[in-house]
């Protein structure tokens, strides 16, 4: 029996609860993990990242089957389900920890990220401020730190009782279902 080769991508689009909820509904995605990336403090906590002082972004690490959804499609869904034009914020969440960023895991992923941002800019009347980070050779800022356990699968549990999540996540999921109908799970 042939084993499927899964691929990972790391993206940050504001609150990781919101981005995680969107990608859990995308076909071909087998795992979504919330965490922190792009900062300088080893093993940061949620409380530390929320201060904006560690340099980390709230991000998600998406594991997916490239035979079902390609990396360019993952990046297109990412850019199309949050506002990549807001610098260091998503709605009411303000600070560098809420920046729009792609953290490529290879030079090929970096090229795909550039192409995805280019496609988004060509298709929209405003310009994305999404950054491509982490391949500078600074291993520390490219290190992925999983978020605390209570952040994982947040929308499926506590998030459905959280007023912030109830206001922010459903419109993002609706945008996914409207703009990427062929990429949504059953």
Topology (SSEs and partners):
Layout: E1 7-13, H1 16-23, E2 29-37, H2 46-50, E3 57-64, H3 71-81, E4 89-90, E5 93-94, E6 100-103, H4 107-123, E7 131-132, E8 145-146, H5 163-179
Parallel strand pairs: 6-7
Antiparallel strand pairs: 1-3, 1-6, 2-3, 2-8, 4-5
Descriptive account of the structure:
The structure is a single chain. Helix content is 31%, strand content 19%. The chain has a six-stranded mixed β-sheet with strand order 7-6-1-3-2-8, covered by helices on one side. A two-stranded antiparallel ribbon has the order 4-5. With 186 residues, it is an alpha+beta fold.
SS class: alpha+beta
Radius of gyration: 15 Å
Determine the N-to-C terminus distance: 26 Å
Report the uncertain regions: none
**Order of strands in the sheet with most strands:** 7-6-1-3-2-8
If helices are DSSP runs of H or I spanning 4 or more residues, what is the number of helices? Answer: 5
Helix content: 25-40%
Shape: globular
How would you classify the quaternary structure? Answer: single chain
Secondary-structure element string: EHEHEHEEEHEEH
Profile the largest sheet.
6 strands, mixed
What's the overall average pLDDT, rounded?
A: 94
Number of strands: 8
- As a percent range, the share of strand residues is 15-25%
């Amino acid at each position: 029996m042939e084993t499927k080769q899964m691929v990972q991508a790391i993206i940050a689009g504001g609150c990781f609860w919101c981005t995680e909820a969107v990608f859990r509904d995308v076909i071909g995605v087998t795992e979504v993990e919330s965490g922190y990336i792009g900062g300088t403090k080893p093993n940061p906590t949620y409380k530390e990242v929320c201060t904006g002082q560690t340099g980390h972004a709230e991000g998600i690490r998406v594991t997916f089957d490239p035979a079902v959804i390609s990396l360019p499609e993952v990046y297109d869904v990412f850019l199309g389900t949050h506002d990549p034009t807001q610098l260091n914020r998503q709605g009411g969440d303000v600070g560098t920890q809420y920046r729009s960023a792609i953290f490529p895991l290879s030079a090929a992923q970096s090229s795909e990220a550039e192409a995805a941002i280019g496609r988004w800019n060509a298709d929209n009347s405003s310009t994305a401020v999404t950054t491509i980070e982490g391949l500078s050779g600074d291993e520390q800022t490219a290190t992925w730190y999983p978020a605390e356990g209570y952040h994982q699968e947040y929308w499926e549990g506590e998030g459905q009782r959280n007023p912030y999540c109830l206001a922010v996540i459903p419109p993002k999921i609706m945008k996914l279902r409207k703009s990427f109908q062929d990429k949504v799970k059953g």
